[in-house]
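Subgroup meeting minutes
Present: P.N., E.W., G.H.
Scribe: E.W.

1. P.N. recapped why we're keeping a running log of single-chain structure predictions: easier to compare across weeks, and new members can see raw inputs and outputs side by side.
2. G.H. added today's entry (124 aa).
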Amino acid sequence: MKVSQTFRFESAHYLPHVPETHKCRGMHGHSYRAEVILSGPVDKTTGFIVDFFEIEDKAGSVISSLDHMCLNEIEGLSNPTVEIIAKWIFDRVEKQIPLLFAVRVYETCDSWAEYSRDDAWNIS
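Output recorded in log:
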């Protein structure tokens, strides 16, 4: 079974490793949407994988640390592409919610990146 909870945050960033003519090279902002997806067995007593209030508390505290921030100034996000943001969130939420399966981050309504437990990606 899988469950998901969605969070929203507003942040600014710039991409320092793209060509100077790239429109994302300069400081700009996004209204991000992050989906935290958990996978696991349903507890026979509670009927939950994990209580949504626990997800909101634990994942929400990680994601809220990005709200109204310049992402480039946050440790581990000096090159804050949506791919790197998804993995950054995953790495921190997984420590608090072991049943975390994936984190999907929408940079726009139509563009997203997802990092999951099955991905063996490391930043090179």
